[in-house]
Amino acid sequence: MGTQQFLLILFSFVVLGLIIYSGYVMMHNSTVNSSREQLIYNLYDIGLIAQEYYKKTVDKEGENGSYTGWKLPDQFYYSTAGTFDVSIKDKRIDLSAVGTQIGRNNKTNVHVTASVDNKGIIIIVVN
């Protein structure tokens, strides 16, 4: 009788440990995915702002077919989602965002890039 009770208690601890571990993994994955999605949404918003600038005429504070003179809005340099970097060329803008959570490779933070031109916005998840 004592052996059966001991094995039952041991089995209960093992199951409880597995439940706690799986809950931790699920919560961690959810946090990482949320961080990545937030960066993607922010990059898309920045891309839309840049395209708006590209399409505006000079008299409406745009550049009429060029990204020259466009600046990343201040609220996007540092946010709760991460940090953003921009490389501006005449006909294209390259954006990079690094999140606050460790990404899929378990070594570096979440990283998403985007390329914005007159045809659209291409977003690539790096990590």
Secondary structure layout plus pairing:
Blueprint: H1 2-55, E1 82-88, E2 93-102, E3 109-117, E4 120-125
Antiparallel strand pairs: 1-2, 2-3, 3-4
Beta strand %: 25-35%
Q: Segments where pLDDT lies below 50 for 5+ residues?
A: none
Q: What integer value in Å does the Rg equal?
A: 23 Å
Helix and strand sequence: HEEEE
Distance between the termini: 53 Å
Which structural class is indicated by helix and strand composition?
Answer: alpha+beta
Write up what this structure looks like.
By secondary structure, the protein is α+β, with helices and mostly antiparallel strands. It has one domain. 43% of the residues lie in helices and 25% in strands. The protein has one helix and four strands. The mean pLDDT is 89.
Concise synopsis of the structure shown:
This protein is an alpha+beta fold and 127 residues long. It is built from one helix and four strands.
List keywords for this structure.
127 residues, alpha+beta, 4 strands
